[in-house]
Amino acid sequence: MTDKRTILVVEDSMTQAVALKRILQEHGYGVITASNGKLGLELALNNKPDLVISDVIMPEMNGYELCREIKNNKDTARIPVILLTELKSFTSILEGLESLSDDYITKPYNEKNLISKIELYINTTIPCDDATDSGEFEITYEGITHMVYSNYKKVFNLLIATYENSIQQYQELMDSRDSLKKINNELIEQKHIIQQSENMFKFFVQTIPDVIYKIDCEGRFTFINNSIRNYGYEPEELIGEHFSKIIHPDDVENISRVKVLPNFIGKHTGNLEAPKLFDERRDVDRKTSGLEVHLKVKNPDLPNKSIITEVFSYGIYRFDSDKHISDLEGTLGVIRCKKDDFLGSGGIIKDITEKKRIEKALFESEKISHALLENASDAILIADTEGNILKANKKAVELLGYDRSELLCLKITDIHPQDMLESVIDGFQRCVEKAIPDYIETQVLKKDGGKISVEISCSLIVINGKKLMQGIFRDITERKLAQERLHRQEQLLIQQSKMAAMGEMIGVITHQWKQPLNVLGLIVQDLKDVHEYGELDTDYIDNLVKSTMEQVIFMSKTADEFRNFLKPSKEKETFDIMTLLKEVFSLLSAQLKSNLISYKIKCHCHNNIFRHYSEVIPCDRTPITTYKHQLAHVLLNLISNSTDAIIERRQKGLLSTEGIIAVDCFRDNNLLKLEITDNGGGIPEEIIDRIFEPYFTTKEDKGTGIGLYMSKVIVEESLGGSVYAKSVEDGAVFTLEFNV
Question: What is the pTM of this model?
Fold first, then answer.
């Protein structure tokens, strides 16, 4: 016998034989195997193994028979035999005693216990008499007497194995009891969770606003939630009814598998082109979705009323733990289940009437927007925030000379001259960053290189969450030309106004110089008479020189005052309005006096009235910062206009009293106001709205019609104030207002 012991394993189960062989080889034993008792006996006789391990239940010859054959043969009687048995019944115990086996190992066996028993028997020599010397026992079980031949040791081993099996079974029972208890507790907990989940599911199913339904294989309702009440039905009245009861008849033909599928027999449509069915049989992963149908509303007052709904339907199959999806076969037209596990169809019906109305309104709105965009009189470009042009209307194509496809390949910077890019980019960025509309006057480049003057209104718009820039390009070429013509015309009017003002000034100077010239004439005439009569002496000459120089100085001073008056203001200056009125009336006083026109100046801040310019005193409540000579020009025009009205009225015999011009000065917080009132007869109502128009005059060939127009231009554009006129009893009032 070699050091490496050999064990014969007799096992009809290849899996268990391989597993047992692996365990024995890992512990250093040689192993030979046999798949049944008969083959095992042959190997035992031929190879004389050191130990035999045999299963009990085997074909050809079972383990008990094999053990008896080995023990009854003198050549193999001393080989230890261990039987693998379950020992679950008294009969198996008796058979174990009758088999003369040396020991027993119960299934399922413990590896450690198995190896310990093998080592015990492999290292112990069994005496010959131990193999044959057996006592005879008579055992009666269930009325049947059994004669058992065995010795005390084998009986003891059998009892030990039986006890071990009982202990093991008891432990397994305890473990099973604990496991069952744990599983039972888990099942109770799971039942509670499932009950909660079911209650929650029922709550959602019954309270969700969408209709949830289930139909059987024939298309009859087996469940429908309470939301169907929104359309006049009770759930109970629909159970057992075909789904067509709630669907508009015109739609049933297009959604029922009975009506639709015959048209698809033999066709392979694929999931994308498959027809949409209310009684769908495909599973959830390939369900019908987006099926639009008209659901009939049960309303006696509106028998034909229906709403638009969207249906999601799918097949429902009996749950099978051995497969993940239902197995279907056949073409679409003859689709059927491989097994009878189809239970029906389920789905959701969603009211999309309002959604369809909104979609229709949105579609109409988009059509209108597109029409407005395309038919707009201005060019419109839409770009992203990077300046890439995304959309262009017809006018933009016409304005720039590009094809629409060409424009959509350009950036905003590509359609502007280089010298204009900086202002365009600045305006674009301001609009993007601050979301405030921006207005730019610039030029755009046409495809042929030509330049067009445009006014751009740039604004930020948001479409579907995306920021876009919209630019409205208005061709202002004609407007620019008109502005240039207007500018030239205004320059001409200004020149004419200056000439008219100079003419008026000359008239004023004439009045101012008339008196001193008369005095000088009298002096000259008196000088001749004095010379003829010999009265010319030193005193006379001194008086003559003095009187003459007074008149010359007066005339020179007058000329200086008019020259300063006509001198244009280059910068704004702060001055007292009362002082300016004093200067204006000092120039006009002689003319007013010669035309029998009196005047008065009233400061309402201090309630002071002045009837001669020399009486006027400054007022600390009436300062103003503006172009002094331009305001003086306006005052001169307005007072001269009043003077002309009074003279004309007197010439027509309509004025029997003295002419009067009054200037009232008011201050109300930051508003400074001057009112110039006369008794020149007022302004006819039919022309009062036109008196500030250029070239409009009521003086026939005596006026140019630019005095009041230029006064309005100066006040509103240069001085930043406002001027308006109205008629009062017996005269007119011209009002000047300034924020100070």
Answer: 0.40
